[in-house]
Each structure stands twice: as C-alpha cells, then as structure tokens.
Specification:
Number of strands: 8
Strand order of the largest sheet: 1-8-3-6
Radius of gyration: 36 Å
Oligomer: single chain
Membrane topology: Multi-pass membrane protein
Pfam families: cNMP_binding, Na_H_Exchanger
Protein name: Cyclic nucleotide-binding domain-containing protein
Number of helices: 32
InterPro entries: Cation/H_exchanger_CPA1, Cation/H_exchanger_TM, cNMP-bd_CS, cNMP-bd_dom, cNMP-bd_dom_sf, RmlC-like_jellyroll
Structural class: mainly alpha
Organism: Pannonibacter tanglangensis
C-alpha cells in the first residue's frame, strides 16, 4: 500500500472519531456504541467500494479499510499499553484499595467462572474442542470500561460504582489475557494441556508480572525528580515507560505484560504526584487523557471495521450458539456478583455492595475493542483450524455487538430507574447550602460591579431579582433537610478538611518550601486520613492523623541500625524528616483552622464547625508537643530549618512577582529572563535541607557529661571504650520494673522519668539510672521512661563494677546518688503506708456507719 493512502485513511478515521463525539452526546448514546456502528458501516462500505467497478478511483483507499496494514499483534502492542497505563493514572488508587476485595472477585474470580461457564455450555453444541470453547470464554471475559464509565459520568452515577467498574476492568483485562495466552498455547501446542501446568503458568505469569511492574514503576518514580522543571520530558518519559515494561516483561522476562503495565501504572500513580510539581502532574494527566482518547477510539474503530469480515459466513447454528454464549456469560457473571460478593461482607473482607450496584455491574458488562482484537489474533494464526477460527470470530464479534447494542443502550435508563443518579439527602443538603452561599456572594459582586461601571439601577435590579429568587428557592429546599444528623455533617466536614489538607501540602510542594521526601510521606498519611474519615468518621480521622506524630517503622529501623551498627546516617535523616514533617503539619493545621472558620462553618453550622475546630486543635497540640521536644534537643537545627523555610518562601514569592510583572507587561522579556536566571542561581544555593548533627559521638558525649568532665583525658579515653551511646525516643522505656539489672545508663542529654510504686522522679543531664540494681543485685525496682529525645551512655554490669572500683570520684558520686534515692524511696514508702492506713481506717468507719476520726500524722513519717 502507498504511504500517502494509508495516511489519508488514518486522517479520515481521526475526523470520524472527532465528529462522532458531539453526535453521541446529541443522540444520548455511549461513544463506544456509535464507534462500533460507524466502524462496521465503514468496513461494509469499503468492501462495496472495492468490489464495485463504478468506484475504481477509490479502490486504493477502500483497500486500506478492507485489509488494514496492521495485524492484531501490532494493535495490542501499540494501543494496549497506553490504555492500561492511562487507566491506572485516572484511578484514585487509595480509594480503589478500600474495595480491593470486591474488585478482585469481579476481576479475577469472575473471569475464571465466566470462562468455565461459557466453555462447558458451548462444548456439547459447538463441534470444536473444549479448549477452543474455553478460549472463547477467556476472550469475551474482558470488559470495556470506557463505554460504561462515560455513561456513569454523563448521568451522575455514584463514585463508588464507577470505581468498582474501573477497578474490575483494569484487573479483568490482565487476568483474562493471561488466561487467553495459556489457552491459546494449549490450542496451538505450545502449552502443556494439563490443568496443573496451566494453573502454575497462570500464577507465575500473574505474580511475576505484578512484581516486575511494581519494581519498574518504583524505579521510574525515582527518576522523575531529575526532570522536575521539564514537563515535556516528564510526559515523554511516562509514555515510554508502559511500552518498555510491556516489551521487557513479555519478550525478556516471560511474565504477563498486561499485569506488569498495570502494576507499574499503579506505582506511578501512587508515588508520582510527590515527585513532580502539581502543575506538571496536571499537565501530564491532560496529555495522557488525549493520548488515551486517540488510542481507545482508534483501536475500537479499527476493530469494528473488521466486523463485517469476521461475521462472514454467519449461519443459523451460529445464532443458536450466540444465544447460549449470551446466557452462559450472563449466568456466570450473576453467580459471582450475587453469589460470591455477599460472602465478602459476611467474612468482613470488604464493604458490602448493595443490590442496586450489583444490578448495574451485572448489566454493565459491555465488551469492546480488546475482545475483538483477541478474536482477530485467533483468526490470524495459521496453526488453528478454520472451524475454530470461524467459531471464535463469529461468536466474539456477535457477543460484542449484543453487549453494545443491548447493554449500552439500556444501561442509562436502568441507572435512572434504580435512582442511582440522585444525590443522597446529606449531599443534597450540602449542595443547597453551598449553592446558597455562592449565589449570595455572586449577587453582592454583581451589585459592586454595577456600581463600579455605572450601570442603571433598573438593569441591576433585574439581574439581582433573579439571584434573589434562586437563593430563596435553595434556602427553602435546604430548610427541609435541617434534620440531618450532626454526626453526618461532622464526617463530611472532616472529609473536606482532609481534602483541603492535601491541597495545602501540594501547595507547599509547588512552592518548593519542603523536601520531596517529606511531601511524599505526608501525602500518603493525608490520603489515609481522608479514607478513614469516609469509612469511620471522627474516630478514624483522629486515628489516622496520629500517624503524623507517631514513630513509623522507618524511624525505628534507623534507630535499630544505629544501636547495632553504630552509624547514625539513617537516624539523622529520620530525625530531620520528622522535624520537617512536624513543621509542615503545624503550618498546614493553622491554615486548616482558618479554612474551617471561613469556608466550612457557613456550610455545616456553628455547632459542627466547633467540633471540627476542637479536632484540629487536638491535632495541633499533639504536633506542638512533639515539635517542642525536638526543639529542646536540637534548637540549632530547628532554627536552621525554619530559616530555610522562610528563605524558600521568599524566593518563591519573588519568582511569582517577576512572573506577574511580565504577564502584565511591566517588564520586557529580556529583563524578565535576566531576573529569572539570577533567581535560579540563588534558589540553587538553598535547595539543600540543612544538615542535622545528632551529637552522638562518644568522645563529645563523655566530655560534656558532668560525671566525667573532671576526669583526666586518659581515664575518659578508657571510659569511652566501655560506654555505648543510645538514642531513645519520647515515651520509650529505658528500664522496665522486674527486669534483671544488666547495665547502667548515664543521661547525656534529655530527661527521663523514674516511676516507682511510691512516686515519680525526674532525672536529667548528668544523672545515672539503673545503677541501683547493679549495686544491690536485686531486680529492677522501677520503670524508667524517656520524657523527650534522650541520648544515653550505656555501661554493662561488669564494666560498671570495674569502673566504680578504679575511679574513687565516680564511685563517690554514684554512691551519693544511690543514698539520696534510697532516702527518697524510704520517705515515699512511709508516706505511702501512712496514706494507705488512713484510707483503710476511713473505709472501716464508713462501713460501720460512723464518722471517721481525725488522724494525726505519725511522728515516724
């Protein structure tokens, strides 16, 4: 074929795709339905033009449509990676994980069940092998989310319903194609026919693809910061990623390419937003949306053009088999949706899916381009018998047409019939409340604009009257919903706060005021805060929010590495990350408190707003407590971090001022570029986070400890070989009561609390804890808990005794501390005993019905 003719045919397809979009909206049809119809019409018309002598001038163009210069393998390689990757980018992955149980059942279990139902239902009638019937089942098990989700968005279906369908389709394609490849190999002799071998191949391909995709996606995310300020480079890199993963996984590693692309896209979606600026991520999304639109439309219309050819030779028996196929697919899907999904709720493996949702999911199982392409790949293989090729091509094509023409045209009326397009009473009330506020603000703005532009009061009044009427209508509707529970309003307010917190964190990321590591960790926690607020309300919100001040597994691992390997690099970075995260949270919480007052309170009322305010203040108190503990331990680093934050904020404000001046044409492009270059150099100098010194060097700790400060250098050197520094977190137990005494702890920095049965003592820098058990040989008699970040010097029992023996000054000091503590303990014990006796005497008199006499203090006390 001539290249210009192919390009002309390609341009014709793009024009058809563009014109069909507004036509589909006007006809109230899903675009996929119209694409399939027009594609089949193009295929039939091209065949007529090619074989009619009167139109020989168009033969070259018609030949392109009758015999496209592209086969099924090329279609899959060119379009499928793009479609899969783009779908993962559009999904709210953390919300998807909430419904991962139902999605896995719909995607994986449903594919296996549908394949089995279809295969065994057709086998007695089709006249082909069971493997061929199962192969057809795997082909038609792939669902098409594009048509269904477009209907959902047009009609306003619930968000969870859309997530279930999109999540199902994403993993459904992966499972179905893996199964297709195995059955295809069995049919052509490339795969062993044993069921055990097939199952092992399925698991290896699926799990291997999952692992490789996650690894590739994580590596790709790590590369993104290198292109931070280059949006075009980021998009280019993201387009190359799914193709590279697809080819490597299939051709080199030998695992499922579809699963690998999906899992790499999931990883890219989860961690990508924290590696690029929000503007760049939004731009990347927009470009991918355009790419996916071209890919999905082209693959659909190209596959549809081949429908007339694939239906060639359609017989009465084929019609009967098609009816059996439709019924078997419907029953198999219904068994999973209405039989297996409810079991997840019973076993608490997932949130319950209500009957209305299940009905729509059952009826929304439309098939599309992937099904047609897989069927086309069967017809192109020379080792597959012609009767099997005809069977697969006709049945798959007929099934796709049925789902598009029946399901596609009736799904929207079904959703309306089930009233799934209606807002809940709470959402309706909040909608009216918000609309009333907006209409009131717009009305006031119209008045101000009319006054500023000297517009006639009569004209202004006409416009104002319209807003007054709408405001009164909304207020009347909202008055009906006043009985909505405050608990529900609080939950929606918390969700709004969590969503706003994400926006504020991304704003600081855009302004480059905090590091990428902090943003990434904080976004993950904010996502969990929003999710748990949706599912568990205020209790879930508070529980997730505590993760910000909690010490995570990474921090404790860094602490473990320091204790075992005596290297503080990881620990220093963990402390710096925590410092920065707490600082960012403090700033964001202050902004959220103002947001609650200005924006949320008018929507939910004063009472609910006060509950939200108390929740935010509680979070703020926790953050300030942890931040103050860090500041006491590392005041210099706290100042350096805040200084760097202010510097970065100032530089970003300077950059914005230059850009606004250039946009308003106050400065010329030459001046603007010169200012930008100068600022870029300055910003490059302050991009690095300050270095934190944990002060964990033994020599410095020993020299600064009052117990050892007066000792000669030679003795301090000997002591340094015995002591080991330990970094302790706030609230961590240094010593537990009842344990065997195996070490003494010298407090170098920070403070600890000794908790005995009779009282509490606070110990600080220069004090020793744990020495009593070593001196007496008795078990530990108290708990010792760190009050803040503490640096301790640990001395084993044997080394402690040797050190006391060889250092009279140290021995005298430790014995003095021990005697003092024994005296305090004795006094506390006597006071405790007297108090207990007094309480017992009071209880005895009260039991006898008398009045307890006054008890004079014991002289022994």
């Amino acid at each position: 074929m001539h290249t210009p003719v192919v390009i002309a045919a390609f341009a014709v397809l793009l024009i058809v795709i563009a014109l069909l979009q507004p036509l589909a909206r006007r006809l109230d049809l899903a675009p996929s339905v119209l694409l399939a119809a027009v594609g089949a019409l193009l295929g039939a018309m091209a065949a007529w033009l090619l074989y009619t002598p009167q139109t020989d001038a168009l033969n070259a163009l018609a030949q392109v449509f009758v015999d496209p210069p592209i086969d099924s393998e090329t279609i899959l390689y060119v379009f499928l990676p793009l479609l899969l990757f783009q779908t993962t980018l559009t999904l709210e992955m953390r919300r998807i994980f909430e419904d991962i149980g139902p999605i896995l059942v719909l995607a994986v279990v449903a594919v296996l069940v549908a394949t089995a139902f279809i295969g065994f239902a057709l086998y007695p009638l089709a006249g082909v092998s069971l493997v061929a019937c199962l192969l057809l089942g795997a082909i038609v098990a792939t669902t098409d989310p594009v048509a269904v989700v477009s209907i959902f968005r047009d009609i306003g279906a619930p968000a969870r319903l859309g997530r279930l369908v999109e999540g199902e389709s994403l993993l459904n394609d992966a499972a179905a194609i893996v199964l297709f490849v195995i059955l295809f190999g069995m049919l052509t002799g490339a795969q062993a026919p044993e069921a055990s071998a097939a199952l092992l191949t399925f698991l290896r391909s699926f799990i291997g693809g999952l692992a490789f995709g996650l690894l590739a996606g994580r590596l790709a995310v790590g590369v993104l910061p290198m292109m931070r300020d280059h949006k075009l480079a980021q998009v280019t890199f993201s387009v190359a990623l799914p193709y590279l993963v697809y080819v490597l996984s299939e051709q080199v590693i030998g695992v499922s390419a579809v699963v690998a692309v999906v899992s790499s896209g999931i990883m890219f979606n989860l961690y990508g937003p924290a590696r690029v600026t929000p503007d760049a991520w939004s731009y990347l999304h927009d470009v991918w949306e355009q790419i996916a639109f071209w890919a999905s439309s082209l693959i659909f219309i190209i596959a549809s053009i081949l429908i007339p050819e694939m239906l060639d030779g359609f017989r009465l028996l084929d019609a009967l088999l098609l009816v059996v196929l439709i019924l078997a697919a419907f029953v198999g899907r219904a068994v999973v949706i209405f039989g297996l999904l409810p079991l997840l709720g019973v076993m608490r493996l997932g949130e319950r899916v209500n009957t209305k949702y299940k009905t729509v999911i059952l009826w929304g199982g439309m098939r599309g381009a992937v099904t047609l392409t897989l069927a086309l790949s069967v017809t192109e293989h020379r080792n597959i018998p012609e009767d099997v090729q005809h069977f697969v091509a006709v049945q798959a094509t007929g099934f796709v047409l049925f789902t598009l023409l029946v399901y596609g045209t009736t799904l929207k009326p079904l959703i309306k019939l089930l009233k799934l397009n209606n807002l809940s009473p709470l959402d309706e009330a909040l909608r009216n409340q918000f609309q009333a506020l907006v209409l009131s603000d717009v009305r006031d703005s119209v008045d101000q604009m009319a006054s500023a532009y000297a517009i006639s009061p009569d004209v202004t009044q006409k416009v104002r009257a319209g807003y007054d009427a709408r405001t009164a209508e909304v207020a009347a509707a909202n008055a009906i919903a006043e009985d909505i529970m405050d608990k529900e309003r609080v939950q929606l307010g918390l969700i709004a706060l969590a969503d706003r917190e994400r926006v504020l964190v991304l704003h600081h990321f855009r302004e480059n005021t905090v590091s990428n590591r902090t943003i990434s960790a904080h976004l993950a926690i904010v996502g969990e805060i929003a999710d748990t607020a949706r599912t568990r309300g205020r209790a879930g919100y508070n529980r997730a929010a505590r993760r910000i001040v909690a010490f995570d597994a990474g921090f404790r691992f860094a602490q473990w590495v320091f204790r075992r390997l005596r290297t503080d690099a990881l620990l220093g970075r963990a402390v710096a990350d925590r410092f920065e995260r707490l600082l960012l949270t403090r700033i964001v919480l202050n902004e959220l408190i103002l947001f609650n007052v200005k924006r949320i309170r008018p929507m939910v009322g004063d009472r609910v707003s006060m509950i939200l305010h108390e929740t935010l203040e509680g979070r703020k108190d926790d953050v300030l407590q942890q931040l103050d503990a860090l500041r006491l331990q590392y005041p210099d680093y706290a100042d350096a971090l805040e200084l760097e934050f202010l510097r970065r904020t100032g530089e970003r404000m300077e950059e914005t001022a230059y850009a606004e001046a250039f946009a308003q044409r106050l400065i010329a492009s030459e001046l603007y570029n010169d200012l930008k270059r100068e600022l870029a150099v300055k910003m490059g100098e302050t991009r690095q986070r300050p270095h934190i010194d944990l002060g964990l060097k033994k020599q410095d700790l020993i020299a600064s400890n009052p117990l050892f400060a007066t000792l000669p250098d030679s003795q301090r050197e000997r002591i340094s070989r015995l002591l080991q520094p330990v970094f302790v977190l706030p609230g961590e137990h240094v010593i537990r009561k009842g344990e065997k005494g195996d070490a003494a702890y010298f407090i170098s920095s920070g403070a600890a609390e000794v908790r005995t049965a009779f009282g509490v003592h606070r110990m600080g820098r220069g004090d020793v804890v744990g020495e009593m058990a070593l001196l007496t040989g008795q078990p530990r008699s108290a708990d010792v808990v760190a009050l803040g970040y503490c640096t301790l010097l640990v001395l084993s029992a044997a080394d402690f005794r040797n050190l006391i023996r060889t250092s009279p000054e140290l021995k005298a000091h430790v014995e003095h501390l021990a005697q003092t503590r024994l005296g305090l303990n004795a006094a506390e014990a006597a006071a405790f005993a007297e108090k207990a006796a007094h309480e017992a005497l009071e209880a005895a008199h009260e039991g006898a019905g008398g009045t307890p006499p006054a008890v004079a203090p014991s002289p022994q006390a």
